[in-house]
Amino acid sequence: MTGTSSVELACRYGSPLYVYDLALVRESCTNLRAVLPPGSRLYYSLKANPHPTIVACLLDLGCHLEVSSAGEVDVACAAGASPDRVLFTGPGKTRSAIEHALRVGVRRFSVESAGDLDRIATASLAHSTKAECLIRVNRDAPLAGGSLTMTGVSSQFGVDASLLMDRPELFGSRPGADISGFHLYAASNIADPARLAEQLYENAVIAAELSSATGIALREVDLGGGFPAPYAGRGTTLDVAELTGLAERLSSVWSCYDRPPLLSFESGRFLVATSGSLVAGVVDSKTSKGFTYVVLESGVNHLGGMSGLRKLPRPQPSVEVLGGADGLVRGSLVGPLCTPIDCLSSDVELPVVTEGDLIRIPDVGAYGLTASLIAFLGHPAPTEIVIDGADGVISASRLTIARTPVGPEPFRESP
Predict the structure, then answer these.
(1) What's the pLDDT tens digit per position in 312-339?
(2) Which are the contacts of 166, defined by CB distance < 8 A and separation ≥ 6?
(3) 239 and 331 co-located in one domain
(4) N or C end of the chain: which has fewer CB within 10 A?
């Protein structure tokens, strides 16, 4: 996507706006599949970007979907996913969410605890069906090198490997739930390809050892992901050439199996991160006590909301001024919200801009709008534009938040 096309889109649809390019989604998916074992399954994690056109594109590319809420179940179905291509994960699957998934035909779940398994089995029996479950495993050893570690430490995610070894009877198949394998997800955004390959191999070895020790047969092993991609123009993208040989190494784990399990992998950020940009206008450029602040019409309500809550590092975005800029200045890039947490980057080199200039922040196709604080202060959400390379605009839409009546009490709109 060129700067000129961004300006044209802003002139046509206004700003701020997110622009996603399906051609880049296809490119990322093709590159990732090239290093995965032949016949393996690739799940797209909707949490990265649930835009229905992007989800439909990845379905067309053969991806399955990993969802973590009733809302994501609905997005998957609306995008055209067959329920048998949906895996429901997450540590907080409520009874109502499980029942909703079962009602629409989802039968595959990742189990996070003995209680989670019991709830799924009970709900499946009530719907006269049987769920197919992977047991998510919390490895006993921690993993270094990821931006967000979710195994090897005390965690809400998964069943401790030691517990699974000591009490396998808690996690066996039963009426309503058939255990079909293991799910191991170590960390997100592992920058070092060698470390990424090693953790995928270690996950495979752990799955094989747990199967042997517990007697749980393996039809599928979800080895997780961790495939890195830049965020807001910063960070590392995966050079897939550096994972050459991964498929052969993983296959060696199953060399003694008459029927090796299906290997599956998950990716959110790698598949969609580079496909998206945020285009936003400059509201003001001001100096306070000798320090410059560039104020945008978008802030942590549209980008980096989790970083604004200090749950992730600030994005420190790479900023391109559309139309050129005259010089650089040291300062902070901030948004329009009435809170000091609305800071996209601080004490960095910024282009000299004036009111009305447009800036573009690249590589925000993952963990952008829906990972932000879109309800806070009531600013309108950016328009979301989907293009397909040179074919131009495929769709243009905007998320809205509406209040709807619930329960017997009358609902009255404010005057």
Answers:
(1) 455 667 788 887 667 888 889 999 999 9
(2) none
(3) no
(4) C
Q: Look at residue 280 and give its three-state secondary structure.
A: strand
**Single residue among 212, 245, 267 that ends a domain in this structure:** 267
CATH number at residue 329: 2.40.37.10
In whole angstroms, what is the distance from residue 280 CA to residue 295 CA? 10
Q: What totals of helices (H) and strands (E) does the chain contain, helices first? A: 11, 20
Q: Which residue, chain included where needed, has tokens 């998320």?
A: 399
The DSSP bridge pattern shows strands 383-387 and 328-334 to be unpaired
Enclosing domain of residue 144: 89-267
SS3 105: coil
Main-chain dihedrals φ then ψ at residue 215, nearest 5 degrees: 80, 5
Q: Does 219 lie in the same domain as 97?
A: yes
Per the structure, how many domains does the chain have?
2
User: Which uninterrupted H or E stretch holds 159?
Assistant: strand 159-160
CATH number for the domain harbouring residue 123: 3.20.20.10
CB 301 within 8 A of CB 379: yes
- Measure the CA angle with vertex 399, ends 397 and 403; round to 5°: 140
Asked, for residue 25, whether it belongs to a domain, the answer is no
Q: What is the mean pLDDT of the chain?
A: 89
Looking at the fold, whether 321 and 240 belong to one and the same domain comes out as no
Which amino acid, one-letter code, is at 257?
Answer: Y
Q: Helices 52-60 & 70-78, crossing angle to 10 degrees?
A: 60
User: Which tokens hold the place of 163?
Assistant: 């517990």
Give the integer Cα–Cα distance in Å for 17 and 290: 31
For the whole model, what pTM was predicted? 0.91
Question: 269 is written with which tokens?
Answer: 């950020």
Q: Is 14 helix (H, G, I), strand (E, B) or coil?
A: coil
119 and 246 share one domain: yes
Summarised one tens digit per residue, pLDDT across range 15-33 is 999 999 999 999 999 999 9
For residue 277, which of 24, 12, 31, 75 has the smallest C-alpha distance? 24
Q: What DSSP designation does 35 have? A: T
- Per the listing, tokens 């559309």 go with 322
**Residues 280 and 300 grouped into a single domain:** yes
pLDDT at 414: 60
Do 121 and 255 have their domain in common?
Answer: yes
Does 326 lie in the same domain as 216? no
Round to whole Å and give the CA distance between 277 and 18.
6
Distance CA 274, CA 272 (A): 6
Looking at the structure, do residues 249 and 285 belong to the same domain, yes or no? Answer: no
Yes or no: say if 351 and 383 are a contact pair by the CB < 8 Å rule.
Answer: no
pLDDT at 3: 46
